[in-house]
Amino acid sequence: MLAVHNLEVVYEDVMLAVRGASLSVDRGQIVALLGANGAGKTTLLRAITGLLNVHRGKITRGNATIDGAPLDTRSAAAVVRAGVGQVMEGRRVFVEFTVEENLRVGGHTASTRGMQEKFDRIYGMFPVLADRRTSLAGYLSGGEQQMLAIGRAMMAEPSYLLLDEPSLGLAPMMVERIRDLVVEINSTGTGILLIEQNAAMALSIAHHGYVMENGITVMDAPARRLREDADIQEFYLGIG
Ligand code: ATP
């Protein structure tokens, strides 16, 4: 289980961006993390993946654990080695690399033979990437780039995958494909933490969900309960 305990994160030594957030993700689960812009979702994710330093944030309290042992969040590479992959907001593929070169970056620790097996596995999961393997990533559509970003993270065969707004800016049909992919990845035993503005999409596939407000996880419930909650319906699902 990947767990975050009572996390507190400060930016520039003044701004408390996360002020006591806890959550956990089991390998069998898809967990949704909802919250308005600025609630602290991305900061929490960066605190897990070791990218906080780059953004001048500092964990002042709390930590993340994996199967009960502290996760070394001081370096992004250590986090990947521990089995946690992530897809950052905005896709961020290497646009001047080919599809296959992008994937290679994600699987860089593998041997040559191991690499081919990984390519085959990812191309099986994402046929569209197989068709475009020699294209520059910059020529792919937004949805295809999102798939490439997910495929690249999956090359490291993570036990947990953290996704920051994977459906942002995509056409409805692409959103559905990304949703189906998340379900498929989870069914192979990868736990998913899904940050989404598209709460309807996230709650339609999540087992469990958290809502974050002002840096605190204020709700923690099975996704089914969140879908039925009047406040969630009003503020996140646009119903009522
Ligand atoms: P969004 O959906 O807009 O990304 P979020 O819930 O992910 O929102 P964060 O991006 O984690 O929220 O931001 C939480 C707070 O921390 C916000 O007030 C934001 O302005 C601030 N913040 C984020 N990154 C930095 C940074 N690098 N330096 C200083 N403050 C930051």
What does this entry look like structurally?
- By secondary structure, this protein is an alpha/beta fold.
- The chain is 38% helix and 27% strand.
- The chain has ten helices and ten strands.
- The protein has helices at 41-49, 76-81, 99-106, 112-125, 127-131, 142-154, 172-187, 199-205, 223-228, 230-235, and strands spanning 2-11, 15-25, 30-34, 57-66, 69-70, 84-87, 160-164, 191-195, 208-213, 216-222.
- The strands form two sheets. The protein has a six-stranded mixed sheet, with helices on both faces.
- Strand 9 (208-213) and strand 10 form a beta hairpin.
- Helix 3 packs parallel to helix 6.
- The longest helix is centred in the C-terminal third of the chain and has 16 residues, at 172-187.
- The chain is globular and about 45 Å long.
- The model has no long low-confidence stretch (mean pLDDT 91).
- Adenosine-5'-triphosphate binds at residues 11-12, 15, 17, 35, 37-43, 55-56.
Beta content? 25-35%
Quickly count the helices. Answer: 10
The main pleated sheet reads as: 6 strands, mixed
* Alpha carbon gap, first and last residue: 36 Å
Strand order of the largest sheet: 6-7-8-3-9-10
Radius of gyration, rounded? Answer: 17 Å
- How does the helix and strand content classify structurally? alpha/beta
Low-confidence stretches: none
Which overall shape is indicated by the principal axes computed on the Cα atoms?
globular
Element layout with pairings:
Layout (H helix, E strand, L loop, with lengths): L1 E10 L3 E11 L4 E5 L6 H9 L7 E10 L2 E2 L5 H6 L2 E4 L11 H8 L5 H14 L1 H5 L10 H13 L5 E5 L7 H16 L3 E5 L3 H7 L2 E6 L2 E7 H6 L1 H6 L5
Parallel strand pairs: 3-8, 3-9, 6-7, 7-8
Antiparallel strand pairs: 1-2, 1-4, 4-5, 9-10
Bound molecules: adenosine-5'-triphosphate.
